[in-house]
Design goal:
Elements lengths: L9 E3 H17 L14 E3 L15 E4 L5 E9 L3 E10 L6 E15 L6 E3 H4 L18 E8 L10 E22 L2 E18 L2 E9 L5 E9 L6 E2 L5 E3 L7 E3 L1 E11 L8 E13 L4 E9 L4 E3 L6 E10 L5 E7 L9 H7 L10 E5 L19 H5 L8 E11 L9 E13 L24
Parallel strand pairs: 1-2
Antiparallel strand pairs: 3-4, 4-5, 5-6, 6-7, 6-16, 8-9, 9-10, 10-11, 11-12, 12-24, 13-15, 14-15, 16-23, 17-18, 17-20, 19-22, 20-21, 21-24, 22-23
The structure holds copper (II) ion.
């Protein structure tokens, strides 16, 4: 059975270099706070690296070492519809060999229905985040490296129309704050962290969206959609039930609306296929223990294509049952929604005539299919019109795609004009048992794995 093998004592030169760059960036970012010196690299510097050699079809691979000694490597491209698409995402935890996490990550739809019922857009499939909508970045939008790629003006460029190489991807190493702090009789262990951040900006109508992915030194992947730009000038009324007055006195009710985002996460944890999906739930039993209420939790396998709703204390994980960490635990990643506004995509509601309460899915799991790319209005009609269609045959899950729905109900404020301050929505994929301990324990904690010995 394959095992994620430790690679202790080997710190790539690229990590040291990245750490220096990261510290410079952090020093620029943090004006008033002193940034502590980087912790000494673990072991001696050698040419070995956690980076993997990727053959990327369109652009040079992105490889980034972080302060912790962990490294991310992946391919990227700009899709006319989906905008930034990340592929072959690999993570090498500090001191370990690289493991593939994702086959692909991108947005799968962005619907913006207005509360009056008078307007609705499906921004990804009607206008798209790529092409002319993909904005050229300047130094103000990107403190890191601005990376160029060829962006066709029309579709994928195969119909002509020209295009040009433009800097559209921002690659930054950002200060991630305090990674950990723990003090005991022997002293204080504390470290900051750095994260890799990739972002593009797409202008669709009056809104400008930031597609941002943050790859943590702990192996986490955070997907965020930021919205700025301006409130749509066409969408004002005088109805307090559907808007908020942003003009003087009781005037100019900007119409409330939702930004309903669905991301498409195609897994390849430890290799593509053979993935297992589980849902975790915990609930109070109603019984009282001597000091606190009893709570029971556990996992339920999701063997087939399906949708699931959010609930208190609920999360999901995608696991590779054939790869174990040094503790013998199967490696997995957890899908964490955080706070979100539940929604049912308008097309799903019209198509299925489903839930009257408008509650759709928080996550959906489908078997990967290269023509199933969009949560609704999927362009390849032959393989289904959207997620509910894809999941309808309840195929057995192995090559798993997770669709993650995160909503934001936007009730405008005076401060939204003008321009609008950025508002964010997103979710996190967090490693669970990828390594037997934290990937980068300080030397005093290297032996902590399980219940520590009794302290006298
Ligand atoms: Cu809005």
């Amino acid at each position: 059975m394959p095992e994620l093998s430790p690679r202790r004592g080997v710190v790539p030169a690229i990590v040291a270099a990245a750490a220096i760059v990261a510290l410079v960036v952090a020093a620029i970012l943090v004006v008033e706070q002193a940034v502590p010196a980087a912790p000494a690299p673990r072991g001696e510097e050698t040419k070995a690296s956690g980076a993997v050699d990727l053959e990327c079809p369109e652009n040079e691979p992105i490889t980034q070492g972080l302060l912790s000694g962990s490294t991310w490597t992946m391919c990227w491209r700009i899709d006319p519809d989906r905008g930034l698409v990340l592929q072959d995402v690999h993570f090498a935890p500090a001191g370990h060999e690289a493991v593939q996490v994702l086959a692909e990550l991108s947005i799968g739809q962005l619907e913006v229905p207005y509360d009056t019922g008078l307007r609705n857009t499906e921004d990804i499939t009607t206008q798209g985040f790529g092409g002319r909508q993909m904005m050229t970045l300047t130094e103000t939008e990107c403190l890191g490296e601005r990376i160029e790629t060829y962006v066709p003006k029309i579709g994928d460029g195969s119909m002509g129309g020209g295009g040009e190489r433009r800097p559209v991807l921002c690659q930054e190493v950002v200060d991630g704050g305090i990674a950990y702090r723990s003090s005991d009789g022997a002293g204080t262990e504390v470290a900051r962290r750095t994260d890799l951040r990739l972002a593009t900006i797409s202008k669709v109508g009056w809104y400008e969206y930031v597609s941002q992915y943050t790859f943590g030194s702990d192996g986490s992947i955070r997907s965020d959609l930021g919205a700025t730009g301006d409130l749509s000038p066409e969408d004002y009324g005088d109805d307090p039930a559907h808007g908020w007055p942003v003009g003087p006195g009781d005037t100019d009710y900007a119409t409330s609306h939702s930004h309903n985002a669905v991301w498409r996460v195609h897994w390849a944890l430890g290799g593509q296929g053979g993935q297992v999906v589980e849902q975790y739930d915990a609930a109070p039993t109603g019984e009282q223990g001597p000091r606190s209420p009893l709570v029971e939790g556990g996992l339920t396998r999701i063997p087939r294509e399906s949708t699931a709703e959010a609930a208190d204390r609920r999360w999901w994980r995608v696991m590779n049952p054939d790869v174990r960490n040094a503790d013998g635990h199967q490696i997995s990643y957890q899908v964490e929604l955080g706070a979100t506004t539940p929604f049912e995509l308008t097309k799903d509601h019209q198509h299925k005539g489903r839930n009257a309460d408008g509650a759709g899915y928080a996550v959906a799991f489908t078997e990967a299919d290269d023509c199933q790319l969009f949560a609704t209005a999927n362009k390849e009609g032959t393989c289904g019109s959207g997620v509910l269609d894809f999941a309808q045959d309840e195929a057995e899950l192995s090559d798993v795609v997770t669709w993650v729905a995160v909503g934001f109900h936007h009730v405008a404020r005076d401060e939204d004009q003008s321009p609008m301050e950025m508002h964010w929505q997103g979710f996190t994929l967090t490693p669970r048992d990828l390594t037997a301990q934290r990937a980068d324990p300080p030397s005093a904690r290297e032996d902590v794995n399980g219940k520590p010995p009794e302290v006298p």
